[in-house]
Amino acid sequence: MHITIQKKIKYIFLIIFLFLLYNKLYSFSIISARGVVLEARIIKEVKTKQELKIKILTTNFKGNIITGYNYLEGQKNYDNYYKKGDLILVDLLVEKKTIRNCRIIDYYRFNYYIFLFIIFLLFVLLIGKKQGFNALLSIIICIIIIFFFVLPLFLKNYNPVIIGIIFSLISLFVSFKLITRNKKIFLSAFFGAFLSLFISFILLIFIFKFLYLDKFFIDLYRELLLMSRMYIPLTIENIILIFIFSAIISCLGIVMDTSITIASSIYEIYSTTNNIDNKTLFESGINIGKDIFGTMANAYVLIFAGQFLTMLIFFKIIKFPFIRIINLQPFASELVMIFIGLFCMFLTIFITSFLSVILLKNKKESVFSLYERF
Amino acid sequence: MKTIIIFISFIIFINSFIFSLTIDGDIKSHPLLFFNKNTDFFVKVKLLNEPDVEEQKVKIKILQGQFKDNIIDAFLVINENKNLMLNLIKDDLALAKIVINEEEKKIVEAYIIDYYRVDRLFLILIMFIILLILFLRKKVLLSIIGIFLEILLLFVFLNYFIHNNNIFKIIFSLYLFVLLTMIIAIFFNTFNFKKSILAILCCFITLTIIFFISYYLIKALELKYFFDDYIQLIDYYSRNVSLIQMNNNYYLIIFAGILLSLTGILSDVAVSISSSMYEIANGKSFNLKEILKSGFNVGKDILSTEINTIVFALIGSNFGTFILFFYSNDTLKNILNKEIIAIIISEILICNIGIILVIFIGVLINAYYYSKKN
């Protein structure tokens, strides 16, 4: 492996540093703790409350037993009825190192995540070994960048286009650096992915105007727009650009996948075959692209179908006709999101195989002479 | 070609089987529903003059349906905020709701409710499909047909899913549907019968394992109904419909969505595993150990590129939710404990565990098959 242990340690330290920085910036005086319900009863005089005796299991107040109230709405769908032995999440209001008050938030779901994540990690290490671990590390770094740097900067009303470009450059650099083992593969995959993302970003801005998707929101983005007047200092143009940026994030994974596959297989073909000319090399790249395009497109469409299943069920229940469903802003934007992902993959196939051919051949042949040959 | 014909007849057979399962009851919609199927129609209209701001009215010409070429006055809500309300001028196309009197067959009133997006959406879609077929040729055409078949199947399934009251029937139909989608996805993207049968076999085993595990895990999340906008709407607009909301069984919708997302990815990985194993081992004499070793090497490569697809797709499509949560003054722990975030995290982890399982099972099955054969 070309990535030394020192580099890996550097990356891990970077993650820890980012976490510490985040905690410094956003610290709260309220402490979240895990608790277990020791006793649960509904108070008979007031039926809108449930009195709980809670033993706290984490933080400095471990072992304390407190009583808290779970307020009930009176509807079975809204209310959480806690039983004895349930793990719950509690907010403790702390003043001068004593618990003043507590608020019962919800069921405690972290055990579930940790259980799934440990299974996932074990499987990755078992089958993927070092390579799988590196891929996982790159994903975690990208997620940290999205949530702790990109989102807060968006909320401070910086220009989403510039942030988006910087973000995609950094995330592509980190993940390709961790996955690939060759400089030429890295360069062609990196620029192929970045250029196709950039082109589809610009195309999306025009498509949004063309389809009137930047007006008349009826979805979550309408909520955001309404909130923007009161709390979030976001301008309308920036909200639309953030929406476009989210479409780009969702095709980031698929583009990385395609570009790395094509670049590395063109490299394999080049290194195993002697005296292969540019045209056949390019065509073999396109052929590999054809092979992976079908299944990847299928996977992408089905991921989005699964995501928007609740929306489809809602339209099915209120019996809207087909023309009305297609015409709705959230549905149309979903279709555009799927479309742009596939288009981005299509572009990546061409750009990456073109760039790989240029980079693999010797330096004397310029871009223009290559262009004439095609 | 022969296999495809056999396969299509197989699909029709299974579809008729799904249809033959009895549907328990029709949906009784909420009495206050704003849309009546008998009297309300949605049509494409053209604005003939500038909207009147004082009377909030405009003259329109109907371009579709049984009232084609009628010229009438329509209501158009005009507001100062151009981004939340419609912003139309003379000669624009729009979508209007016309209300008719059932006995006299006359138009009573008309409202302009949205921009008209359908034509432009289809224009973009057709242009994109032509572009794909021009550059990537025959293979892509087949996979596009496969995607359309899957969407058709999804609508057939949804009809059954919504109308049923029996939880066992719902889960069984979901299982059948997911399996069928997987079979379509594999058959329309591989052109070798042996490869596709092997891929389907390993998909089937993985799906069965993941199906039962994830059902119990999602039930354990204790999901309540207010976690999603559309689930709230479903609850409001359809009272006493089916088991889905009567017994607080919204988790079934989420479960179906997660499985649908899983399907595409599983079939993608299974196809690439079985085709690369075919390239490695077909017609050559290896023993089981050698095939397993090279199979797991290929699996490592596939794993490291594939696990980021679903992560980025889900983060991108839920970006608005993340912004809203991140702006609220809640602690990070409480945000991560929320239902909607819990669903996203569990979906990512379940799908990625599915990918690793399918690689493991696929390599084992293929290696066993080729070692026996040689």
Features:
heterodimer, A: 374 residues, alpha+beta, OB fold (Dihydrolipoamide Acetyltransferase, E2P), 2 domains, five-stranded antiparallel beta sheet, 12 helices, 66% helix, disordered C terminus, B: 374 residues, 10% strand
Report on the architecture of this protein:
The complex is a heterodimer of chains A (374) and B (374). A five-stranded antiparallel beta sheet of chain A has the order 3-2-1-4-5, with no helix packed on it. Chain A folds into two domains: 31-111, OB fold (Dihydrolipoamide Acetyltransferase, E2P) (Beta Barrel); 132-373, no CATH class. Chain A contains twelve helices and five strands. The model of chain A is unreliable at 370-374 (pLDDT under 50). Chain A is of the alpha+beta class. In chain A, a hairpin with an 8-residue loop joins strand 2 and strand 3 (65-71). Chain B is α+β, with helices and mostly antiparallel strands. Chain B has two domains: 2-25 and 136-373, no CATH class; 40-116, OB fold (Dihydrolipoamide Acetyltransferase, E2P). Chain B has twelve helices and five strands. Chain B has helices at 2-20, 118-136, 138-163, 167-187, 193-220, 229-237, 243-246, 251-281, 288-317, 319-327, 332-337, 339-373; strands at residues 40-47, 57-62, 71-75, 93-101, 106-115. Chain B has a five-stranded antiparallel beta sheet, with no helix packed on it. The model of chain B has no long low-confidence stretch (mean pLDDT 81). At the A-B interface, strand 5, helix 2, helix 5, helix 6 and helix 7 of A face helix 2, helix 3, helix 6, helix 8 and helix 9 of B.
